[in-house]
Specification:
The protein is mainly beta. The protein is built from 1 helix and 5 strands; from the N terminus they run αβββββ. It has one domain.
């Protein structure tokens, strides 16, 4: 059975999945093996978020998604939080897409 070639009009309807990881600079964390307990990182986003934090646990998988736990200061208080690694462009989402707005970088 011969395969039919697609027209340019038909190809336009395919979803556009970014195949290249977004590049946010040379300090960007791009692999799970770059993360370890005690690592000082910055949680960054295109809308200006910039949190200086320390990794306290991770990376670990919870409900099929990679995470890490952080500790950071907010004023005089010490806070703890969890970030999803696909949401910060360390790894891809299950559908193959990359997050193009958030990232982690070495402090």
């Amino acid at each position: 059975m011969a395969m039919k070639s697609l027209t340019l009009e038909e190809v336009k309807f395919f979803p556009q999945v970014p195949v290249v990881r977004p590049y946010f600079g040379k300090r960007q964390i791009q692999n799970l093996d770059q993360i370890h307990k005690g690592l000082r990182i910055r949680v960054r986003s295109e809308d200006g978020l910039d949190i200086l934090a320390t990794v306290i646990l991770g990376p670990y998988k919870k409900d099929g998604i990679w995470h890490l736990d952080l500790e950071f200061r907010k004023g005089r208080d010490i806070w703890q939080g969890t970030v999803s690694l696909p949401d910060h462009s360390v790894i891809r989402y299950d559908n193959g897409e990359w997050n193009r707005a958030n990232w982690l970088e070495r402090a």
